[in-house]
Amino acid sequence: MDHANPERLPLEACIETLRGRREAVGRLQGGHTHFQEDLRIFNEVANNQGWFLRTTPAELSLPPSDEGNEHQVWFREENRTFLKATWPDFFGLRAVYRPDEESKASPIEYLERWLLHNAFFTDQVSFLGIVAMLGGQQIGH
Questions:
Q1: DSSP code of 53?
Q2: The dihedral of CA 119, 123, 2, 141: what is its sign?
Q3: Which pLDDT score, from 0 to 100, does residue 141 have?
Q4: CA–CA gap between residue 46 and residue 134 (Å, rounded)
């Protein structure tokens, strides 16, 4: 991964690293991880891999071009791309979950959905990194 230019973090490599760690923890416990464990795993991997952005993208200080239930969106006219940032500490909802499970998606599940999005719609969404804020952390892509 190119940590000097976080816009080049391939989503596939990020997910592979996160899944590997999550599967190892699940095997040690004899089951699957739960929401709080996924948060811990995500933060540990993010710290180890240097995924926390040193500087906040300038767009985050401007009003967004649009927003939805999971994230805010800024159009980058100079290269005709979009910057998306999740709401602080919210990564969407799970589509399927048991009554005893958390309905909120973990950051790992959020990024997995974007990987599926790339596969199904042949998009090229990449992982920008994580912005730490007073209200929580945001994922940028």
A1: -
A2: negative
A3: 67
A4: 18
3-state secondary structure of 37: helix
- Indicate the domain borders of the chain: 6-140
The two three-digit tokens of residue 117, written as one number:
């999005």
Q: What is the pLDDT of residues 110-141, one digit of tens each?
A: 999 999 999 999 888 888 899 987 667 888 76
Q: What is the pTM of this model?
A: 0.85
Three-state DSSP class for 47?
helix
pLDDT mean across residues, the chain: 87
Q: What type of residue sits at position 81?
A: T
Contact between 84 and 11 (Cβ < 8 Å) = no
What dihedral angle (degrees, nearest 10) is formed by the CA atoms of 66, 72, 75, 81? -130
